[in-house]
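Q: Predict the bound structure with heme C.
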Amino acid sequence: MADSKNNSNQVPDTGHVWDGIRELDNPCPRWWLNSLYLSGLIVVVYFILYPSLPLVNDSTKGLLGWTQIKEFKEDLAKVEAVRAPFENKLAEMSVEDILANQEMLNYAIGSSKVLFGENCAACHGTGGAPAESAGYPNLTDDDWLFGGEINEIMMSIAKGRSGTMPAHQNLLTTEEVDLLVQFVVDSSNGVENSAGLALYNAKGCVACHGADAKGVKAMGSANLTDKIWRFSGDEDQIRHTILHGVNDASDKETRVALMPQWSEKMAVIMEAIAYAIEDDEDPNDIDWDDELTGDEAERLTETEIKKLAVYVHQFGGGQ
Ligand code: HEC
Ligand code: HEC
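A: Predicted complex:
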């Protein structure tokens, strides 16, 4: 029980004794108490200045009017301010000019990574190289269905693309398919196969893949004489493409090869300019009210498509 007489240091005790050990009643250290009071004060000040107390649909606002979204927007505005001069300049430049200007090229490439990641990587893979089994074209090899020149790439993105190889399972005998598979394999190895070539011509493959079987850009047909495959160089896979084609609605096993359209408006504009040049007319004379209805879909802006075309062009395959 309480026994201050035996307390050698004359510290008052609490009167509690456990197993002969007495609980003294020392005051808390000053520094400790001060920190305790200070932290209480900080809580009060924070409470007054910042949003703190949750209400039913909201919270108290605080005197500073700080919000997370406001801070984010301020940071974003700083980033945009840095980007704005580049973005404005890009909007005015042609893709050829961008390619020739190292500073703008660096900016376009740097700022396209996220754009590509968000819109393209799901099919074409991060950095433009999808897994082969995914069935999407690799954009980093030097092999193009529709062409690797900057304007061709831009057109692929703006307009979208879709493969046109028909299914041949009802048009060819098994022996003919075997011979054509062998012809494709031989062609990719640089081996001549004259019986195969005759059949290739007779069955109309030549109309799309060309007399040299190297593919025709305007048709987006694959080059059959190299070792870079749109799908795969396995004989089974080659046979599958010949039998079932691509995007052939009449064949359940057909391959799907659809590239979405990103700006119908830009595709219409690019095509109109290309036709005018082909016909020896001045593109400045084009009557855009005639060409454009105003309802053309735009999933990406013109500047974004230019940036992406430049980005894809520098993957290593650009021509
Ligand atoms: C839904 C999947 C998908 C998405 C998303 C997609 N693509 Fe494609 N892309 C394809 C397919 C499939 C083809 C090949 C079409 C064909 O086989 O005829 C293709 C073809 C292309 C080509 C032409 C390649 C060649 O060899 O000529 C380019 C360039 C291209 N895509 C760039 C892009 C860019 C840039 C984006 C993002 C804005 C994008 N793609 C988004 C599926 C996609
Ligand atoms: C109407 C045009 C057309 C005809 C006819 C055609 N092809 Fe194709 N072929 C294509 C296109 C376009 C592609 C590219 C598929 C795509 O868009 O991804 C292709 C792809 C292929 C491929 C895949 C190559 C690869 O790299 O993976 C093979 C093999 C092939 N064709 C063989 C043939 C043979 C053999 C014939 C004749 C029996 C033939 N094609 C007839 C348009 C055609």
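A: The CA atoms of residues 43 and 215 lie 72 Å apart.
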